[in-house]
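Recap from last week: sequence in, structure out.
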Amino acid sequence: MTTRKGSAATASRMPPQPSRRGLLFGLLADIVIPIALYYGLRAAGVSVFAALLAGALLPTLTTAVQWVRTRSLEGMAGFVAGTMLLGLAAALVSGSPRFMLAKDGWLTAVAGLWFLISIRAERPLLFHGGRPLLEGRFRSDGTSWDVLWEREPAFRRIWRVSTAIWGVAMLLDAVARVVMAYALPVDLVPGLGALLWPVTLVLLQVVNGVYYEVAGLWRLTAGTTTRPPEG
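Predicted structure tokens:
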């Protein structure tokens, strides 16, 4: 029988869970504000490259502030920071507005490959990304995901497959971004690129949500599956 002390200990081992306000701020800082800044600078007569560079610097600065405050960039935060710095370096070297526009596509391709490579890691990338959002919050009996990972092969398989789904989707998203960057009018691309993010993410949420239900993720986290006795 699980005691209250045991439940409290399990809860204390769970990773910090981001608030809705924090997630909304992250969305504004990484997508909405940079696009608004780009079009505002363009309306003021700033060059395409300088406006794009200013928009790219903003998410990098917010990530730097997070690191200064917490002295850590774990999981997805570290991944995002690495790809943003790589993109800024490449953009500064190239000096090309079209390359700068395609930057998000190339970085999304790197992200997709990173997801796919992580499938064979000790724990795949999506496990680290989904854990702070879902563990202990949705259809959970309070069991730590560390315990589920060690005890349930199906749990491990679900996260590896869903990470593969994300990797493939991000590669397709990357192709669309690169094509837009080189085929469409320059000032049209940032806005369309921003709109592509919610489309990709909503489709991923739908596909993954269906997969999680069919594969039994919520039955595992809620403790409603039949498990062999522990010995």
